[in-house]
């Protein structure tokens, strides 16, 4: 026990040393809290700071440009509701274009596009560089050859009666269309024959791999679906998930979102309301609408 106590018994000199050590610790702590060691004279290299700020601003601009949606060349005659909305067109401007096209008329110039849609000059200057018209519009035949060119009926807009039935056209007949070779004509026929009865409507040509909008335009000027495949349309406001997935381009996930949105809306009022459904393939809506009804 005495040995244990000896560890806590200090001599006078030891006690004085401990006291001095504690006093120094207290002094240093007080100095740390009450004395300002910072320097007011901070040197700033204004040139380097300005250079750094410019670099940051440049990186921000690059990121802003990357985040902007990319626009690819397109034929303004085939602008859909969604395409027009993404370009910044108003509903009224889109409706004017669609009404013009329903008259079987075609936009053949930037100025005509503005005359029909009445878009602003600023929007027109932004989107018109991406307009892509067919070669026969951008490079018209000379006046001396124009009469013979028209008489050939190659690019004249034909009526429904003048067009051949797309559901009975052979690969050889399709190859007469400029831009349709052996491979594309075979793809069209094979895709059509996947369905008993063939195509429902011309818009299904969009599902044929390799067909550009310009080639589709030329095909539908010569052919159209005159004997559409008969189908039983599905009531969008009553369809089950299993019924919805039988439609092209709708999988179980999209079917789930459609039913979820239908419940929130207390039923769809228009087939175009499907564009508000999460992950809905908007670019395929015209094909999907072929299989649906609201009744």
From TrEMBL:
It comes from the Bacteria. Coiled coil: none annotated. InterPro entries: Endo/Exo/Phosphatase_dom_1, RuvA_2-like. PANTHER family: ENDONUCLEASE/EXONUCLEASE/PHOSPHATASE FAMILY DOMAIN-CONTAINING PROTEIN 1, ENDONUCLEASE_EXONUCLEASE_PHOSPHATASE FAMILY DOMAIN-CONTAINING PROTEIN 1. This is Competence protein ComEA. It comes from Aquaticitalea lipolytica.
């Amino acid at each position: 026990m005495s040995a244990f106590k000896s560890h806590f018994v200090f001599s006078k000199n030891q006690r004085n040393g401990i006291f001095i050590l504690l006093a120094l610790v207290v002094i240093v702590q007080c100095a740390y809290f009450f004395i300002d060691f910072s320097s007011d004279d901070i040197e700033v290299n204004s040139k380097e700071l300005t250079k750094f700020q410019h670099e940051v601003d440049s990186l921000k601009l690059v990121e802003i440009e990357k985040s902007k949606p990319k626009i690819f060349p397109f034929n303004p005659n085939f602008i859909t509701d969604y395409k027009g909305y993404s370009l910044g067109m108003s509903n009224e401007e889109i409706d004017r274009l669609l009404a013009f096209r329903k008259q079987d008329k075609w936009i053949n110039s930037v100025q005509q596009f503005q005359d029909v849609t009445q878009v602003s000059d600023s929007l027109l200057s932004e989107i018109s560089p991406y307009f892509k018209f067919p070669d026969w519009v951008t490079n018209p035949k000379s006046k001396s050859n124009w009469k013979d060119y028209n008489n050939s009926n190659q690019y004249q807009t034909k009526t429904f009666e003048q067009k051949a039935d797309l559901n009975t056209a052979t690969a050889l007949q399709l190859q007469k269309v400029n831009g349709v070779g052996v491979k594309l004509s075979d793809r069209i026929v094979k895709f059509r024959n996947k369905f008993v009865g063939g195509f429902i409507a011309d818009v299904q040509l969009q599902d044929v791999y390799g067909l550009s909008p310009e080639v589709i335009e030329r095909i539908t000027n010569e052919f159209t679906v005159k004997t559409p495949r008969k189908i039983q349309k599905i009531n969008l406001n009553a369809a089950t998930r299993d019924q919805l997935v039988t439609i092209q381009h709708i999988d179980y996930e999209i079917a789930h979102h459609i039913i979820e949105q239908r419940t929130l809306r207390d039923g769809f009022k228009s087939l175009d309301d499907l564009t508000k459904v999460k992950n809905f393939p908007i670019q395929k809506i015209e094909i999907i609408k072929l299989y649906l009804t609201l009744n």
